[in-house]
Design brief:
By secondary structure, the protein is α/β, with parallel strands linked by helices. The protein has seven helices and nine strands; from the N terminus they run βββαβαβαααβαβαββ. The chain has a six-stranded mixed β-sheet with strand order 5-6-7-3-8-9, sandwiched between helices. Strands 2-1-4 form a three-stranded antiparallel β-sheet, covered by helices on one side. A hairpin with a 4-residue loop joins strand 8 and strand 9. The protein is globular. Bound molecules: adenosine-5'-diphosphate (2 copies). One adenosine-5'-diphosphate binds next to helix 1.
């Protein structure tokens, strides 16, 4: 099933910056696709538009056959993980992860059950009561991933989530993310400017060119994952 379709999408910001130019791409269910390219090539713009943050200036973008705005307002099927983990500092780890479920009116017992499940998956079940300031960068990122997964999104959007982390932490989280992808069967869209990260993680790579926001090629990665 086609989940995301860009058809001849152009994105020109108000100040005249061309971020995407004649961008065509189809993303299918279950893929782990990386947007790879140098800084400023339009990766974040593409990802943000899928999340309903900004519309194409020209062309068509469909997410589950709908406009991203419709998709966001009607369902909770899209989750976003940013580079900076974006946790609420006054809420504990558990409360941060339960937040999206709270907003959906899910019962307290169910919220806790689901939050515990995802926190266990990211190896943080011993930190339920900790506050973000007590956690390392890698742990905060884990909480942020758990929070995104708690809502069981069909589509997980990640914008350079590991960029600010040290190499060891990054590698640990990359392996965890691959595990999660296989277990949860979520479609993952991942923005990175790191070639190794893209090759290691993805089933597909959308290589973008700096000259303004064009897609250079789409590569199938067939690595023999363990
Ligand atoms: P990447 O994620 O690949 O680094 P971006 O999508 O963030 O690229 O940016 C693509 C281009 O659009 C860059 O030239 C950037 O400076 C510009 N840009 C991004 N957001 C805005 C904005 N809100 N207003 C104006 N220009 C923007
Ligand atoms: P990323 O680290 O994901 O590539 P950026 O640093 O490009 O993100 O952008 C961070 C924020 O600043 C975004 O909201 C983006 O839209 C905005 N932004 C980026 N470049 C510009 C620009 N040239 N003018 C105005 N806003 C911009």
């Amino acid at each position: 099933q086609e989940i995301v379709t860009f058809r001849q999408v152009h994105k020109i910001y108000n100040n005249g910056t061309v971020a995407l130019s004649n961008f065509n791409l189809t993303i299918k269910e279950g893929e782990f696709i990386s947007f790879l390219g140098p800084s400023g090539c339009g990766k974040s713009t593409a990802l943000r538009m899928i999340a309903g943050l900004g519309e194409p200036t020209k062309g068509e973008l469909k997410v589950y056959q709908k406009s991203p705005k419709e998709m966001i307002s009607e369902t909770n099927d899209i989750a976003f993980v940013f580079q900076d983990s974006n946790l609420l500092p006054w809420r504990s780890v558990l409360d941060n992860v339960m937040l999206p479920l709270e907003l959906r009116g899910i019962s307290k017992r169910k919220r806790k059950e689901e939050a515990m499940r995802v926190l266990e998956m990211v190896g943080l079940k011993d930190y339920l009561k900790a506050y973000p300031r007590e956690l390392s960068g890698g742990m905060k990122m884990r909480v942020s991933i758990a929070r995104a997964l708690a809502a069981k999104p069909k589509l997980l959007l990640m914008d350079e989530p590991f960029a600010a982390l040290d190499e060891m932490t990054r590698q640990g989280l990359q392996l965890e993310l691959l595990d999660i992808w296989k277990k949860e069967k979520t479609t993952i869209l991942f923005v990175t400017h790191n070639v190794f990260e893209a090759v290691f993680l993805s089933s597909k790579i959308a290589v973008m060119s700096a000259r303004p926001g064009r897609l250079s090629s789409v590569i199938d990665v067939n690595l023999p994952y363990p």
